[in-house]
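Entry 14. Structure prediction run on the chain below.
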Amino acid sequence: MKTREILILIFIVLLVISGCREITVSTQIHKDGTFTRTIRITGDSSDVFRGDLPYPVDSTWHKVATKDTSGDDDDYILTYIKIYTNCDELNGEINADTSWRRQLKRKITVEYRFGFFYSYLSFLEVFQPTNPFTFLNYKDYLSADDILWLSGKKDIVSKSDTVRLEKAEERAEVFLATTITAEISHILEEGLAKLESSKQASEDVARYYDSIYQTVDKWEIEKPEKFISLFADWSGNDAVLKLGELDPPLFEEFAKKVSFFESLIDMESYPEMVEMPGIITETNSFMLKGNQVSWEVQPFSLLFEEYELSVESSVVNNWAFIVTGCVLLLLIIVMIVKAIKK
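Output returned:
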């Protein structure tokens, strides 16, 4: 289908634009619950200093730029580092983001729980579903298994897994084209109802459903107001053109959805790594090495359901064992002294 070809083309364009840089986001959790965030960008001089990073950075971040000597390319490494005392400060920065990423509803929670012999730390980042085209329910088109593949919650380990993922992507693309078509049809119906001189009914819009779908399938929706003139041509009714005079514009909110969706699909995928103190006791990451876990954050992972990055660890409080040992030793000494006195 055309939608798949268009999305592939978008990814190719993205690779051309951003393929010269790699972004890594990492969080190092400290034993006291504070944490250090690092954003590392590697690329040539024309790309490494370009904006649109996964998280907002400002003058409070420590910035270091060095020459990358690990390869033959004339690359640079740009690193942003900042220490946070709590997650509220980081979430405040995320919520104050002025770029398109502000529409990504996400929250980071870092918790420290004290236990006498052990302390427990956890990191949790939650992305709310980002798909703006929710006129239809995706659950009527995608199975629970499809969602697991699309969100990256199932790991690809064989050729059959790759085929399964591709089928899930195809069904997701059919759903997107279908729900977008349904929403455009609904918008046209609502607009026609506002035109007193127009006698176009909802069944007239339904008559041109296939034409709307074909236009959507070719991803010709960057300027959705074009559907007004297209519908006038299809129906042969120039009175429909008055839809373009409505205030607010008929497709104003829909155009915002299209703009956000294209920014989301164009988003550079990046690995997010978390290093925990002590021993990791639980995580939903497939990539675990020592006390470090990582996830690949990519557009399709964020579309339909909450996307969680979670990890927990425990840290031994050595001093607690020492104190306990001293107390026990003292009790033994007291008992011995009492026994001698008897």
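The first helix runs from residue 2 to 18.
Filed with the rest of this week's runs.
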